[in-house]
Amino acid sequence: MRQEFEVTLEPLLSVPVERELPFRQRLWQHGWLRKGLILIVLAIIWEAVARYQNNDLLLPSFLQTFQALFDGLRSGELLSKVSISLAVLLKGYLIGIVLAFALTTLAVSTQLGRDLLSTLTSMFNPLPAIALLPLALLWFGLGQNSLIFVLVHSVLWALALNTYSGFLGVSETLRMAGRNYGLKGMRFVLFILIPAALPSILAGLKIGWAFAWRTLIAAELVFGATSGKGGLGWYIFQNRNELYTDKVFAGLAVVILIGLLVENLVFNTFERLTVKRWGMQR
Asked: Residue ranges of the chain with pLDDT lower than 50?
């Protein structure tokens, strides 16, 4: 047997050791700081333009809008409006997700399903969701069901298209591996197609969320209160009629803040725990 031995290596003193990055550069690596600076710069520009124009009715300043936002949150009025809108939004969003996955599962399983998905998306995807609101009022009456109908329409086709394109992009190697394990039907979709197509599915979920959020606000502006209760869009519409422009901007700011929170706290966290952790996305 060969005798074991150990060689002690001398330290490479001639090679320079990389020093730690300066504090400023390490701080600049945080995305939340860069995005926060962008928001601060935008707020400063807003305040400067509003002061230069000097017309609160047309463009209230950032400080006036912030005060209106603070008063609305302190009184609980804005929170109640947001809760009403989010409750309707989540119902329509979840129903749209279920229908989208049902359509795409049928599309990857049968030729008839592919033809059905292609035909329906070509017909209804270019159709604005808000254009269906008059029909929804005739079919479902005054209430949340009309808003849920237009929300499902705004979510369904964008998510179905992204999911189906993600399924088509799954490599043949993964498909063969799933078939070798005996996976068929729904099990094949759940354990092979969905994990492999998750980046496209997440992109569809983001697009569907954005479409649903802006469709809901637009529908509430046109449709008004549902079942005697108005959401965030109705809050903006009422204050516009009463010429409370600072409250209108406060309502719009809440719409933007909710979009930022959902994007950074929900979708980015899910991406970090899944596709980025798995090395599927940079």
From this structure: 227
